[in-house]
Every structure is written in C-alpha cells, then in structure tokens.
Amino acid sequence: MKYSEFFIPTVKDAPSDAEIISHKLMIKAGMIKQSSAGIYSWLPLGLKALRKIEQIVREEQDNAGANEMLMPTIQSADLWIKSGRYDDYGKEMLRIKDRSGREMLFGPTNEELITDIFQSYVTSYKELPKNLYHIQWKFRDEVRPRFGVMRGREFLMKDNYSFDISEEEAKNSYNKMFKAYIKTFLRMGLTPISLRAETGPIGGNLSHEFQILANTGESTLYYDKELERLNPEKLDPDNLQSYYAAVDDQHDENNCSVKKEDLKISKGIEVGHIFYFGTKYSEKLNAYVQDQNGKKIPVHMGSYGIGVSRLVGALIEANHDEKGIKWPKSVAPFTLSIVNLMPDDQNCNTKSLEYYSYFMSNNIDTLYDERICSIGKKLSDNDLIGTPIQIIIGKRDLSAGVVEFKDRMLNKSKKIKIEEVKKVILEKINS
Amino acid sequence: MKYSEFFIPTVKDAPSDAEIISHKLMIKAGMIKQSSAGIYSWLPLGLKALRKIEQIVREEQDNAGANEMLMPTIQSADLWIKSGRYDDYGKEMLRIKDRSGREMLFGPTNEELITDIFQSYVTSYKELPKNLYHIQWKFRDEVRPRFGVMRGREFLMKDNYSFDISEEEAKNSYNKMFKAYIKTFLRMGLTPISLRAETGPIGGNLSHEFQILANTGESTLYYDKELERLNPEKLDPDNLQSYYAAVDDQHDENNCSVKKEDLKISKGIEVGHIFYFGTKYSEKLNAYVQDQNGKKIPVHMGSYGIGVSRLVGALIEANHDEKGIKWPKSVAPFTLSIVNLMPDDQNCNTKSLEYYSYFMSNNIDTLYDERICSIGKKLSDNDLIGTPIQIIIGKRDLSAGVVEFKDRMLNKSKKIKIEEVKKVILEKINS
Question: Which end of chain B has the least Cβ crowding within 10 Å, N or C?
Fold first, then answer.
C-alpha cells in the first residue's frame, strides 16, 4: 500500500478525555475516531490491526475444532425472559422496541440464542461434542464508557459455546479452550496469566480469566514466575491451572502456594474469560439430548469470551514507547515500512519501488511511504503507527551502497548493504 | 473440513413462510436459522458463503483504490437531525434511547457519519480524491420482512463514499465504481444489468442500479443483448451506460433505442445501487476543503451500495435446481466435496484421505464427507449444499480403478481413473 493512497489521518494531539496511553496513541495514529460516547469508527489502519488480531483468534478457534458461525446483533427479548436474565442485566442492556412494539435488545452476549439454535437441531449424544463460535459486535451500555476501545459500549467479542454430554466431557472442552486461549495470546507476542475467577451473572462454578502483562495495566497480579515461560508446544491445561496466580484483592501472602523468590508481581489487563456453567441454560431453554441409554438429559455447557477490540488497546498498552506504538510482528497493521526520504530523487524512487514490489510479491504487508513531506514527519509517523520493521532510504546512504534498517521493537537501527536488504528483511520477518 | 466435524444441520422441510426458493434452500441446507422476523443467524455453511462473497466485494473495492474502514452499527441521532434525514426515514429506522436518554439509532446507511469523519480530517484538495468503504451490518425495520436474507431487517451491506473536488472528478469516481461493480458481479458468475435509476431519499441526479439475471427474479428487465456479453478486461463505463436497459414499468416499446431483435427480456434481482449526489451532505455537514485557489468549497460526493447478504440469496435464485443449490466456484462454501460412500471400507478410506490431504495442501476448500449414513443421504446432502465439484468414492469403482467425478453446475458425472483424479480436479478448479 502506498502511504498517500491510504487514509491514515495522524493527529498531533490526543483529546483531553483520553486518559490512557492506548487511547491516546490510537487517536494520534489515526486508527479510530469516536462517534459517540464509547462508540468508535475504525479508520483503515485501526481496522487492519483489528482484523489481524481477529484472524489469530479465529485460527486458534478453528485449530481447537470450533465451528465459526454468526449470530445477529439484534435479538428478541423472549429468550432472555425465559432464561431469567432479562432483568439481571439492568441498564447495561441496550433495549429496543421495534416498529410493532416488540421488545428487542442489542446482544451483550449469546448464551440464550446459541442454546436455542442448538436445541432446534441437535437431539442425540452422537452429535456431541459441539463447539460453536462467532466474532460479532456486542453492546453494553456502560454508565461511564472510557479508556477508548478498552471499555467501549460497542465492542467486538469472540464468544463460543461448548455442548457436551457430561460434566467430564465438558471439562475436556473447557481445557481445550483454555489451551487455545494461551496459544492465541502467545501468538500475539503477549504474556498471558490465567487466574481462577468468579463466575458472576453467567453462572456455574468453574471459571478462569486471562490477563496479559502490561506495565500500564489496570490490575495487579501475583503469580508463579513459571507462567511467564510457557512453551506453546507443550501446554498442559491441568498443569497450568495448578500454578499460583491471583489479583491483588485475592492475594494472601500467608496463603500463597508459591515460594517468595518465585512469586512475581506485575500489572495486567483482562482480555479473556471462560466459564463452565453446567446445565443452567440447557434446562431453562430446553436443550436436551438423548444419552447412550435413550434417556433425555440437559447438555453441559461452557462459554468462552475474548475481547477482540479490547485486545487492540491491550496490545498497545503492552507495546509502546514515547514515540508511539511498537506492534509485535504477528498483529502489526503493516509488517514493513519502506520510508523513502527523497521521493523527488530518482535513485531513491527506483530503489524504493524495487523493494516495494519485491516484498509485496512475497506477501509481506508493506507500507510504502512516498509522501512529499518533511523527513522528520516521515520518520515520526512510521514510528507512531509502529511498523515493526522499517527500511529507510536516503540519497546519501544509497550513494554509499546502504540503506537503514530499523527494528522498531528494539528501537535499534543499522545500515545494511543494498544487495543484502531482501534477504536480511525476509529473514527478520520469518524469524 | 470433515463433514462430521462441521455443523451443517440440513433439514427435510422448509418452513411454510419460506416463499421463495433461495429462502427454502438456505434453510434446508442448514445455512441460516431465523431468530426473529427478518433476523437470521448464519450457521457455519451460510457464513462461509457470505464470507466468500464479501471477499470478492472487498477485493474489487481495493482494486478500485477504495480504503476499507468500519463504522459502528449504533449512531447518535445528532448528525441525522443536521442532515434532515432523521424524520425522512420514518419507521424503517430502528430508534433507540440509551441509558442517559440520548437518541441513538441502528444505522441503515452511513452518508452522515462518513461525511462527519471526512470533514474532521480532510481540509485540502491535495488530499482528494478519497474513497472509503466498509462492510457492516445495517438494520431497516421493514413492515413486512420476508424472502429470507433477500429482504431481512438486519443485513450486511458494503457501502462506500467518494469525495472529490469537482463534479467532473466525482463522475470519474462514479465510473470507477460502476466498473468495479460490473467486475464484482461477473467474478461471482452472475450476469449484471445496469440501469439508470431514481435517486430517492439519498438525493442527487445521477444513479444506477445493478440487477443480476435470475429466472425467479422480482423484476422484469428489458435490455440490449450486448449487456449479456461483457468482457471483464474491457469495461468502458461510458459505453456501458449508453446501452438500453429498463425495468418493466419504465420500458416503453415506442421509445426504446434498441432494435427488436437485439432486445432481451429477463427476470432480475437488484443487488447494488450507486449515486452521485453532489454537495447535498457536504453542505449540511460542513465538509468543505480548500481548492487550488484557496477558496473553501463543499466536496462532491457519491455513495455506492452492494447488498452482501442479499447476494447470497440472489446467487441461489440464479443457481439452483430441484436437488438444491448449484454454487458458482468462486463463491462456493466448499469448492470440492470428497464423498466417501463406504467409510467402513479400508480402501475407500485410504483413497479418500489421500485425496483430502492432497487437495487441502493445495489450498482447495474441501469438504470430506466421511459420515456413517446412507449413500442416498450423502449424495443428496452434497447436491443440496451445492458443492460445484464432487468426487464420489465407492468400493466397486475403486476395484475398477476409477472414481466418479460430478460437475454439479452441469449435473454431469463421469468416471475418471484414480491416477488422474488430482490432475483433472485441479485443472477443473483452475479453469
């Protein structure tokens, strides 16, 4: 993509109501624009980041055997009245009357609707286990929306729902998702910490939340240092769940199973939550199947959420400096920036275009900055939007047979010979 | 994907309120499930079709230089009051009061919001032209939602908006989109017919609608037969717009510029609509830029819509028979079905799995039907869901060194030698 053909309206100053760094940086980098309180438009660069994150979430759901579908945003109130949650949700639920006066709502979550879909098709244990997910916009009418996309009212969530014949099978599904979650966050370059959690209004008695480490995080976490060194190839959920981890108000120094020297304390941000709630919804919404003996029994269910739009903010909280965002490669809107410092110089243009077409043809998501503007603005914009790998092409460097290579994550630059650029960059990207 | 691991709840009978064939087939093929009047959940197979269609729409927008972004579903009423359309829309607009009593709405279209975004960033002619699009769920509270996803209340639409410095430039943008639309529909194996249209509540004086041909279509079209033979490589919008085409109530035999023998009459379904409306919204919402002389002038705008979820229905109306759907290859949820008639036979299994892993590793979206069920059900399910290319593997055929190859579009089968299967199928898919 050529920079001048892409709409990245970077701005000098973040608005005064932007309290946290990710909110400020997303506005300054031209990723989002607020349209109403807690409701944002995703500008092209923001959408690209959102889609990369969404895609990793999707792939790990698919790898774990879940099937993607899509439920609508607007639901009838009927099922919520049946489940008993229509009143529970209070003012956080956006309630709507349609033109015929029917009570509708903008779904804040989907236990009711998915249970209804399941029960209308599945009648036998032979069709289990089932695991269905969707990635859809939700609405929660927060009293005080803030922190940009971290606590918006309209937000993108991946939620899925498992259906099993027994508690034992359901816990197996739960553990599969647990593992998929750890993998998902590791692939984004994050450090996930899993914690036993309260189940709240969803119900049930088994639940974990997933936090990721970020110095600017909202919670303080106490956890076994082993949780920082997970090997994505060898994840054992039972083992993982046995490590100590607690948020500050649950942490008890005298009742902590881990040695002091192995205990770490860091700030974290919640990005996922999983629940096993047994037959709470299947009983109320009539999701019964025949078991091996021909007996009708309610299915055992779990639900699993990842805040996809929240992750964009969380990733920035975990990866930034005073210049801007430092995207991990796997979720960067652009993997590579080619910064042409002299777009009116023929040598600079020829070399830049050669690299641009080379990397594009190698399926590297490349931003070619060919704008006619000051060198300072070019360098600072590319650092602000946080492209992890940058090639900076200047007239003097070219005459000396080199270009500048910048690793944005490490904030380190070095000169490399022009004939080695393609190889070095491809190696760096694939490392 | 293995059939037994994918949730395709085919059903015998369509509900009695399903009046048209696409609605019936989508329910029978387990693609959608109604949750409320005019509101559907997209089951995994339906979502796969929707995403393939969406991706073609996206690619042709990108090819035409438009930038993808994403506006929210819930908007404040403020901008609509400014534009004067808040009252125009009447009961079709889903109006909502949030917890603080602010008037909100579920966006039925986005002229207001995009104009507001544009004006807050763009101030000079130097940044023009701009073309921004999004693919987002819309809501129109129809009095009588029907015809499945063809006239739903919650529906997926691609809408984009062009911004230009003059009427001439704006018409250039309009023509680019015109061409992109023709290409989009041709890539889906459809025959698009473009017609001059009324602008309606959007405003302006230049507009075209795009219909696609389908025997079961809702409108009757009269048009120059040349429109059926477009070459996607050589599309000239000005030329295309000069061909005669009219819907029945506009067609006038005595005032028709095309010779009787060149006039075709067919049924059609509307799938897209484009508008040039000049400065209607930019004046009201203050989207002014400085021109070459430093003078502030309102930008010239156009808007362009494609009914993405409607296209799923339209494609089925255009491609089906008494057995079910006949997906064109480019939009088929699965390109290839491998139908193993004898999953308890080792030879059948070994051969099926060999083909399955071969085609999957060649990035062919393959459905491997390894279900334990009757041969009749297998064959009819794969025809119902409409996989365009099918390999049917039976015990007797294998002993004879052949498998059956079925072209679902032509409904023709033939035996091919097992050693030629890979080559023949890949050629067929890439043809």
Answer: C
Q: Quote the ipTM score.
A: 0.96
- Please report, for chain A, the start and end positions of each structural domain, with discontinuous segments joined by +: 3-321, 334-430
Give per-residue pLDDT as tens, B304-322. Answer: 999 999 999 999 999 999 9
Which bin fits B203, alpha (ψ -120 to 50), beta or left (φ > 0)? left
pLDDT digits (tens, 9 = 90+) for A197-246: 877 766 777 999 999 999 999 899 999 999 998 888 888 989 888 899 99
Residues of A in contact with B92 (CB under 8 A): 99
Q: Where are the alpha helices (DSSP H) in B200-300?
A: 237-242, 280-284
Name the B residues in 107-126 with CB < 8 Å from any A CB: 113, 116-117, 120-122
| Cα separation, B342 vs B370, whole angstroms | 8
Whether B41 and chain A come into contact, CB under 8 Å, resolves to yes
- Nearest CA among A76, A98, A69 for reference residue B106: A98
Residue among B6, B67, B72 whose CB faces A6 most closely: B67
Token pair belonging to A349: 């243009």
CATH class, domain B334-430, is alpha beta
Is B372 near chain A, with CB under 8 Å? no
Residue from A1, A43, A54 to probe the interface with B (highest B Cβ count within 10 Å): A43
How far is B196 from B209, CA to CA, in rounded Å?
Answer: 6
- In whole angstroms, what is the distance from residue A58 CA to residue A52 CA? 10
- Tell me the residue length of chain B: 431
Residue among A5, A36, A41 whose CB faces B70 most closely: A41
Question: Residues near B373 by Cβ (< 8 Å), separated by ≥ 6?
Answer: none
CB-nearest to B154 from A46, A74, A94 is A74
Contacts of A137 in chain B (CB under 8 A): 72-73, 137
Check whether domain A3-321 has CATH 3.30.930.10, yes or no: yes
Maximum CA extent, chain A: 81
- Residue-wise pLDDT tens digits, A360-387: 999 999 999 999 999 999 999 999 999 9
Whether the CB-CB separation of A187 and A63 falls below 8 Å is answered with: no
B382: nearest Cα among B415, B399, B404, B355: B404
- Which DSSP letter does residue B251 get? -
CB contacts of A36 in chain B (<8 Å) are: 74-76, 102, 104
* Contact by Cβ (8 Å): B366, B334: yes
Q: Hey, are the CB atoms on A116 and B35 less than 8 Å from each other?
A: yes
Q: Shortest Cα distance from B419 to chain A (angstroms)?
A: 31
Whether A65 contacts B5, CB under 8 Å? yes
Its pTM stands at 0.97
Q: Tokens 């819907």 appear where? A: B247
Give the residue carrying structure tokens 């042709």: B60
Q: Is B43 in a helix, a strand, or coil?
A: coil
pLDDT at A279 > cutoff 80: yes
Paired with A281 in beta bridges are none
Nearest to B70 among A42, A76, A92 (CB): A42
